[in-house]
Design brief:
Chain A has 392 residues and is of the alpha+beta class. Chain A has helices at 10-26, 37-44, 74-80, 103-113, 132-141, 153-157, 163-186, 193-206, 272-288, 298-311, and strands at 31-34, 56-60, 65-70, 88-91, 120-123, 146-149, 221-224, 245-254, 257-266, 321-324, 333-338, 352-355, 359-360, 365-366, 370-375, 378-381, 390-391. The radius of gyration of chain A is 22 Å and the shape is globular. Chains A, B: It comes from Thiothrix eikelboomii.
């Protein structure tokens, strides 16, 4: 079976693996167990919704690179990666979701067979899907191994995007433009919230005539009226009401690369508090965009934004953005850089951020955000959606 | 702010909490840290896409019950639970996704303030989103606590559904009927796979005129031709081809309660191997349905099915179903009972299973499944979708 689903040239995957091995060496690691699906996908191309059971990719400094997962998911590895069949290793199905046996015990056996059990092994202790028990099973089964936390080691390698990755991000940007076009066309008071969500999902998956829409790592988030104070609420079957504001936190994806972008919808004439915040946020984006260039730090950008807000009478005590790229549920962020005062990471060309000046108050909320590519000339928005309240 | 989003009567939540405390007592636990979003939701009603950051519900044998999460998610707790504001506790935003600080360290401080730090504490070591580092941070910060694995303790309490839960499951069943109706209407060769996915997502979210469609814990899975060997593949932008089979593993959800249901689509005249398997699987469902009644075991059901398959020349070496109910990504299963030979769990009325006789071969795949409620009279399907290959 050939890798009919490959998204990047083999050379690009090799380059990513080399970068990762270099970072492993710097961290004193001989082997790394990669459990975060986004890291697995970035390193090898593996793409399937199988992360609800234990799986990983193992990469070593002696050239080791293999996928380990459930038997029925091995064909996904054949279709989506360039790994030879000898490096697609699977555990039997009675290891799935049972308290009796753990897939990581099976992996330990493979480590012993391959003489990897005395290595210095990195594990992603705080990445998604690497459970406390997964680590316990590994550590108990491999008493001679030396384990070290390597949370986000691969995530950091993903920060600067390749030209092909930037193309995918820009295509996701084209898709999100279509999504907001659809919202403007169809949203109206009286419609059930789920009907609006249905239109959004249809548009984001349909994509453009050239570029398909992939599923997004977070579903559409929306909150209306008082409920807009809750920034991670999803829809129900209640109706859109006139003279109310609603935030929409949406994204589009292409080949798993995400362009998140939020706007606020208002049915009727937006009250002064909406209009004032709209202006302040729009101006802050204009002001911040040129600062998304190599050399500036995440902290400087965040502080500039917070100062600007403060000057206009607003306070924000949560981060105003984060690094983005390829992603699987439950998050479209890369969990490396955050736009907040404490983060001293230095921007480099090819990095990408969701600049997220969302404001949530006791009984309302407002979002108007951009996904921004760092270039030598300053920030370049991935999408072109009117930067204003969507009024209907 | 009132709990405008409540889905069950307060008495039902109280009953669930009581059941859980009884199970805790049997397990020798004084306190339980619940991190699985499905368990959090089932115990308290909490509902939001905030599980991409650390959060939990803490339940204790002295009446303790509080939510702990990120500050900006506290309003979600006000809107979706009956917890008083004093029991909605949050950590500051600079604890989010950083290697410097861990939210579980902040929780440890709360435990000390509330004199909970010497208790016998259960943790869901192998449930979703409870990372190895989350446990390490807790254990290091609370050296006087005694920790014990309580993986799936709450999941097991969810196994038997209440009348209101069954209503939600049946509504999800009505929604999935609409989804397959849509598939039959729109699917045709030449269409891009993402366009079919867009229609599926639209139909599953639109729901019925009475009942809204919630997001599903897994996105539509689909594989065509050779790719149908990979059972957890999602769509891309390639086109549906004539004279090919495609499995569709879909679900609908209502108030987070899921009805998964799979069918196989064929454009043209299905070859004999499809028709033969269709007949065998259809007969096996007819034969198995009456066995979904109290007293039978998961293992007996699975063995009856495997024997039937074997008799017709097929072998299946993976489980043929699992318990279902309310769920959040990444899985719509409850991760307690599996329909496989090794599982001796006894069926009880009100349990619900996705009976999953999916077959994947080297270069094709076939799925025809049912979601089934256990009743004294045998299994009752949650949905009524023609049990045959969908031919177009």
């Amino acid at each position: 079976m050939k890798a009919s689903r490959r998204r990047f040239e083999p050379a690009e995957y090799l380059e990513r693996q080399t970068k990762t091995r270099t970072a492993m060496e710097a961290a004193g690691l001989e082997l790394l167990i990669v459990t975060d699906p986004s890291n697995i996908g970035w390193l090898t191309g593996f793409d399937g919704w199988s992360f609800y059971v234990h799986q990983c990719v193992v990469i070593g400094n002696q050239g080791e690179l293999f996928w380990f997962g459930r038997g029925i998911d091995a064909p996904t590895a054949y279709l989506t990666t360039d790994l030879p069949p000898s490096e697609v290793l699977s555990y039997p199905d009675h290891y799935v979701q049972t308290s009796e046996l753990h897939p990581m015990e099976y992996l330990a056996t493979i480590f012993k067979q391959r003489q990897l059990h005395t290595r210095r092994i990195g594990v992603e202790k705080d990445n998604y899907y690497f459970s406390a028990r997964a680590f316990e099973a590994l550590a108990t089964s491999l008493p001679t191994a030396h384990f070290q936390d390597a949370t986000c080691l691969v995530n950091w390698q993903r920060a600067i995007k390749s030209p092909q990755e930037i193309i995918y991000l820009q295509r996701a940007g084209q898709v999100i433009e279509q999504v907001y076009q659809r919202v403007l066309e169809v949203a109206e008071p009286g419609m059930r919230k789920n009907e609006l969500a249905a239109e959004i999902l249809h548009a984001s998956t349909w994509g453009t005539a050239e570029h398909y829409g992939d599923y997004t790592a977070i579903v559409p988030l929306m909150g209306m009226g008082e409920e807009a104070s809750a920034c991670h609420l999803t829809w129900d079957g209640t109706r859109l009401e006139p003279d109310q504001g609603m935030f929409l936190e949406l994204a589009a994806a292409h080949h798993r690369y995400h362009c998140p972008l939020s706007r606020t919808l208002y049915f009727g004439k937006p009250p002064a508090k909406y209009r004032k915040l709209e202006q302040v946020i729009a101006e802050s984006i204009e002001r911040l965009l040129p600062l998304f260039k190599p050399g500036n730090t995440c902290g400087e950008l965040a502080q500039t934004f917070f100062n600007y807000l403060h000057h206009h009478g607003y306070e924000k005590n949560n981060r105003c953005g984060y690094s983005i790229g390829m992603s699987y549920p439950p998050d479209w962020g890369e969990r490396t850089m955050s736009l907040r005062a404490e983060d001293s990471s230095i921007l480099q060309a090819g990095m990408c951020f969701h600049f997220m000046p969302g404001m949530w108050f006791e009984d309302w909320g407002f979002e108007m955000t951009e996904s921004i590519l760092v270039t030598a000339q300053g920030g370049a928005c991935l999408a072109n959606v009117p930067r204003q309240i969507l009024v209907k």
